[in-house]
Amino acid sequence: MLVASNRGPYRFDPEADGSFRAHPGGGGLSSALRPLLGDPGVEAHWIAAAVTDGDRAAVRAGAVHAPDLDLVLLDLDPDLARLHYEVVSNQVLWFLFHGMFDLVHRPRFDHDFREAWAAYTAVNQAFADAITTHAPHGDVVLVQDYQLALVPGMVTDARPDLRVVAFLHTPFCGPTSARVLPTDVAESLLGSLTRVPVGFHTDRWARAYAASAREILGTASDPPTFVAPLGPDAAHLAEVADSAAARAALAELDAVVHDRRVILRIDRLEPSKNIVRGFAAFDRLLELHPEWRTTVTFVALLNPSREALPEYLAYRDEVTRAVDAVNARWATSAWQPIVCDTRDDFAGSIAALERYDVLLVNPLRDGLNLVAKEGPLCNRRDGVVVLSPEAGAYAELQEAVVEVHPYDVEQAAAALHRALAMAPDERAERAARLRTLAAARSPRTWLDDLRRTAGA
Ligand code: F6P
Q: Which residues pair with 225 in a beta bridge?
């Protein structure tokens, strides 16, 4: 089995003695797949881009050695890699699939975009070449995500013997949005993807993709798709929750929140996560319901992300201003309404998941949102999940969550109040149901679905 993804399962940092150490990489995909590598029957080769300076140095030193798999990192030309990742993948495809364009102003597909599109094509070709070089005859190839959308077509052309499956961890847009792309770009992306079965976390994105493919390619029938939601790795979560780091993080959190109720969110600092409207809803909650002033703390664990992009830096500033405004309005000498932490600390996140009374997940649109499933498995307080129907995970969890409208701040404030005020027996009932629903899928069932679709 060969996995291809832009961000790999490990990043490499130089040590003082000149060697390189492999650290588990960030991102939902690699943390889901990494624990499975080395399981019986999962003999994996993984091709990814060298993303950090340490990765590139490790490639040049011939020091890319991962503990549990055969890893190849591609040392791409930095300009090509930047245009591929930042411009086409993140500024165009990510914005399109998450419905984030303000179409009066953006996107604008000018000469610079054409240069970026050429870079996207070249990087996809580099991945395709590496795959066709490394994959033995008849191998299963699992291509991950929108950064590599041209790879399925390129690989299938060059090596018809390979059994290629693609999986998109994002939402997909419908035909009206797909038509925003330059016609040849939309045709190339969909023309490539439709050569192989494409998987999504929920049926809604699969249907949007099929409708876009039919319209853009002018085909009468649906392209092959499958739905395979990812689930949390319950054993790994339990192991981390028991660790000394998580115990220390929980003690640190308890010292901040004391015995108050906790509204928690854990997100990348990412515009599609709708963080600012979440704080606006909390502000409105405090305005409408004085009983929650001083008795609830909103804990926001926000990991900085894609900071080379001006959109993300501007959003980070907006988030900071929103936190400051709510705190300036409501704080007392003994209570800080919003506590925001931007450290990237997995054990700390798991500890916070144990402690929440309300988990707020209100994205504008989200492929899945694994936190919405990890929360119920880690939580020890019968916490309520307040979830946007625009998150893929909603399809599986809806019967036991409180729904939150991502754009309706009044409704969101009411949803937070409902969750905080819920009677203990209803909380317990919903939490028990959520644990069952959230545990129904795992990284293993997800991977098995991909391999089965590939005919493995
Ligand atoms: O949701 C799609 C995804 O690519 C995930 O696999 C990843 O966790 C996230 O977006 C962030 O991606 P990156 O930091 O590599 O741009």
A: 198
Fold of 234-438: Rossmann fold (3.40.50)
Ligand 1 centroid distance, CA of 371 (Å): 14
DSSP state of 364: S
- Averaged in consecutive runs of 10 residues, what is the pLDDT profile of the chain (456 residues)? 95 94 83 78 90 96 91 97 98 98 98 98 98 97 98 98 98 98 98 98 98 98 98 95 98 98 98 98 99 98 97 98 98 98 95 98 98 98 98 98 98 99 98 98 96 94
The ligand 1 atom at the shortest distance from the C-alpha of residue 146 is 4
Q: Which class for 50: exposed (0-12), middle (13-18), buried (19 or more C-beta within 10 A)?
A: buried
Q: Which atom of ligand 1 is nearest to the CA of 89?
A: 16
Which architecture characterizes domain 2-230+445-454 according to CATH? 3-Layer(aba) Sandwich (3.40)
Q: 24 C-alpha to center of ligand 1: Å?
A: 15
Atom of ligand 1 nearest to the CA of 366: 1
CA 358: distance to chain centroid? Answer: 21
CB 377 within 8 Å of CB 398: no
Decide: 29 in ligand 1 pocket, CB within 6 A.
yes
Which mutation among 11, 33, 98, 145 tests ligand 1's pocket best, with the greatest number of atoms within 8 A of CB? 145
Candidates 202, 133, 224; CA nearest to 369 is 202
Tokens of 391: 């998150």
Instruction: Confirm or reject: Cβ of 192 under 6 Å from ligand 1.
Output: no
pLDDT at 163: 98
- Segments making up each domain of the chain, as ranges: 2-230+445-454, 234-438
> Can you give the pLDDT at residue 67?
83
Closest Cα partner for 272 from 368, 200, 137? 368
- The reply to whether domains 2-230+445-454 and 234-438 share a CATH topology is yes
Mutate which of 169, 303, 305 to test ligand 1's pocket (most atoms within 8 Å of Cβ)?
A: 169
Longest dimension (CA), the chain: 68
